[in-house]
Amino acid sequence: MSISVAVVGASGKMGRLFCRLIEESADYEVHSRLGSRSALEEMNGADLVVDVSNPSASAEIVAHALGTGANVLVGTSGWSAERLAALGRSIPEGRGVLVIPNFSVGSVLGTTLASIASRFYESIEIIEAHASTKIDSPSGTAVRTAEQIDRARSGLGPVEAPHADQRARGELIAGIPVHSLRMRGIVAQQSVILGGPGETLTITHDTIDQGAYEPGIRLALGRAREITGLVVGLENVINLGLGE
Length: 244
Known about the structure:
The protein is an alpha/beta fold.
């Protein structure tokens, strides 16, 4: 028996991609496609709800989906550490929410490598770029990367971020300056630049086509139906082989 999936944000690029991949799979079927004018009740009865809408609507969508008894897969940006903590406390027993800031395996590897390297450098900044149509900034991936770096550097003290009060220095996320570009000709790109005495290390990931998201989406769909509680990040869906 196939799993029925409601897709919220179905008319957007990621929503259309989700719908296509669901329709191509024998394991899933599209229960409903919701847009900005749809009533949330249209998702009722789905086994799984996928939210790829927008940051302002995401929290309400997730709350409604959980109230119907469905698990939720969130691919919408804007979920800060504070909002995620509050979400984790609100999930009913036996239900689960999987939040994926970026469905690209390469992006997850880039963030993981940057987190490992961050323990050896005091100067760290992030530059992220997306298409001009992306509403929010910084991206959810950049926020996640900064938070992961902050955790990896626990006990080492803050990153050096001189003149952080100046607007041109970017937004501080977990003490790390993050700079956002929004322009034509770009799908998605993130560079983490780490500096130390006499050297810099740059870890860059480029998304050049939405096909990069397909393997991660399939993995996330397979995991989202079975989880309980809150799980954040594709790195917790795939095995990175790093041990504990």
